[in-house]
Every structure is written in C-alpha cells, then in structure tokens.
C-alpha cells in the first residue's frame, strides 16, 4: 500500500513537472526548470533574503522577462510599470497577489483589497499628504535633524570615535515618524537607544517574510500561528498592544493651535467608529463605508510609522554608504551643498529642491538600493493582456523586481556603479567633466526607476519622504566630513579590520532591508 502511494505521488509530481516545463501556457517564457515546477526555490531565496539577487541573475541570463515560479513572471522593461501597476479602476493596475495580503500581519492601506483600498485612500489622501503639507512639516524635520547633528558632534567629533549610522538614522527617522503620525516621538535621539516599540518593528521583518512564504502554499496559512516561532508572535502581540496604548493616549489629547498629525487628519476626514471592527478579526466589515474604524487608524498608523521610518533610514544609510565608497561623488556633493548654502539655514525646502547633484545622489541611491528590492506582485485578471509587448494569460502573477530592473545592463550604462551624474541634464553635467563611457548616459532608461512605485497604490507619503531625505543628507555633509571608518568587525579582536559591510548587497531584504552596522568617521568640516 505504501509503495503504491509513493508510486502515485512520484508519478503525479513527474507529470506535473513535465506539464509545466513543456505544455503550460507560461512554458514559452525563459527561466529555470525548477522554478517552472515548484515555488520551493522562490520561497527558499525569499527566506534567505536573497530573492532579489536570484531574480537579477535570471534576468542577466534570460533577458527582460523571466519565469520565477510556476505561475509568475518578472519584468525589467520600463513599460511593465504602467502595464502592471496602472490602469483599471482607480488606476490601481492588476490586483495584488494574495501573498501580500496582510504580509505585515496587519491589514492596512498597503495590503487592502482594491475595494477597501479605494475607500481608505479616499479617506486618508487629504491635505496632510500634499506637497504643501510636506513644506509645513519641514520645521519638524529640521528640528529633529538639529538634534541628530548635535548628538553626533558631541559624542563623536569631540572624542574622535566612529559613529554607527545605522542606529542614528533609525533613531532620527523613528522619532520624526512618531511625531508626524501621533505627535509623540519615541525619545530615541534623546536616550541614544531604541524604544522597545522600534525593536519590535525591526524584529518584525523576518516574520513578514515567513507569513508571505506560507501564503504561497495553501493551506499552510491556516497553520501560520502554529508554524511561526513563538517569540516572533509574542513580539507581534506586544507591538499591537503598544500601538493601542499609544493611540489611546493620543486620542485623549487635543493638539495645540494649528498643529496637525496623521491621527488628527484621519479624524478630520470622517467620524471615527471605535467599535465596529474587532481587533482580533480585521476582516469584519465596517458599518460605514465613509468612516474610519479604530482598527483602521491603528493599522495605518503602524504602516506610516514603519514605511516613514525604516525605509527612510535605509535610504539615508545607502546614500551615505555609496558616497563614502565614491570619494569623487562625495566631493562634488559637498561642494554643491556648501557653495549653494553659505549658512546652514539656507538648507531649506526651496534651495534643496534646486540642487541638481544632491537630487542626482538621491535618485542614484534609490536606483542601486531601492527601499523595496522585490516589487509586490500583481495577478493578471483579464484576457488579451499585453505587458511590455508580451501576451500574458489571466491568472499569472507579474511584477517588476526593482533590484534587477535598476541594475540591468539593458537599462543603464555601467549599471552597478554609483554615478549621480547620470541624472543631470546636459547643461548641469557640463561642470562635471567625465569620461567617454559616462557620456553614454543619454541612453539610460531612467524611467524604470520607481522607488515609490506608480499608479493608484503609489506611496502616499512620498512628498514628506523626499523632503526628509534632502534635509538630512544635505545637513550631514554640510556639517561634517564623512568617511567610512576602519573598525574591528563586531568589535572582536582578531577579525579583519573594516566596517561591518563594504557592499550594500551584503544586506538582506525580506519585506524591507535588514541592515547591518555601518561605521563612519565624522570630523568638523574643513
């Protein structure tokens, strides 16, 4: 009996593999045979934090479209962005893949289905997320950057000690995000340590990857709570308890004057319904389609805290790292910032927006180190679909893998090099003599770089994010001469001397990048 069952099982698996490799409707697309037969390879690379590199290697080998799973295609052509993520109701593109539903283990604007996303976006996209509002929040960003600069000057410049920028950028961005969302920071910059809430968020990254993997293999999601490590689930529950406590505290306070935070803006967009959604059952229907439940304010506050802090800290660290590894680019940025801004007060919204090299550095950092290395997949839901010129059948998961797209040789000259000059106009580039290869930047397909994605599901907080990126990076190089520090890795005597990572690709992205330490030497500007 056992032998018969084994024979049947093996025969089924072999026939399924043969079908997917040679007769399935996606078999005409290039890709590894193993990926065409099972998602196990995909899941393994995702769990190891190496999915982005794996997909890039497949594109390097096979071209602009490649099969990465039995029912999924990855694209690197610029046209795929609009074909996949735009169009349809609300310009949302194709529906999100089921694996991204509650990938963060809470339901929010990020992973809501299309119907609920339209409602949430309508209620939440108000003046709070406009460019005008971002300019009004500049004072908040500048104030917290003041604290960062003062701490770095006192603790490191004065004592000639290396600074671990991963921690300091996280301290800064979590404090800013806390104040912008709930008018209460986490006290990270003041205490020089992570608030327990922040530690929980950072520990949450691997859990998100686990939940995504389980959703790839029905019915494993039903076993998620049994399979997930107990300590991760305890961290998640503690996290939600902290959110509820913080939000309850915020709802009991009235903000002074014209001060507005996300909670105030959310309350102003509709009446709050504090009880119609069960915190333990986020699928419960709301009693009013034009109201926000307490659960929805909680979950979207978490989303904004996470997206507005961790992704920004990643962007700042990646830009600093790339500049430290490229002395010429660092020198050009320092020259532009210090020449354009005779005083630190001149580093304001208008002046920063008109610094071409600074903005080139930011865009090049986003190209090489996108906050989301693996773009969220969508599912084709209609017949006669063309994506980047390829006919794709309904039911196929499709996506643009940002890491692979941004480093594709077909899209960029010298794709793995940090070259902010590629983003300058011909007139702006005249002041930076370059070699013959760099003059080919005109052939770069710059439209493929979409760090905040496109369409109706693009980043709702992108205006504040770009302001924060400009302010912090410019003020760092205005105040300090920044260099990578040679330091014992992990502080253990006997290991090779050097910073904790030398290449950005040493980091591992799950949903977001799990960053390592990065040591820099900070000296008062010469």
From TrEMBL:
UniProt: heme binding residues: 459
Q: Which UniProt keywords apply?
A: Heme, Iron, Metal-binding, Monooxygenase, Oxidoreductase
**Signal peptide feature range:** none
GO MF, one example: monooxygenase activity
Top-level taxon of origin: Eukaryota
Cofactor requirements of the protein: heme
Q: Which Pfam families match?
A: p450
What family does this chain come from, according to its entry? Belongs to the cytochrome P450 family.
Q: Which PANTHER family match?
A: CYTOCHROME P450, CYTOCHROME P450 MONOOXYGENASE ASQL-RELATED
Protein name, per record: Uu.00g035150.m01.CDS01
Native species: Anthostomella pinea
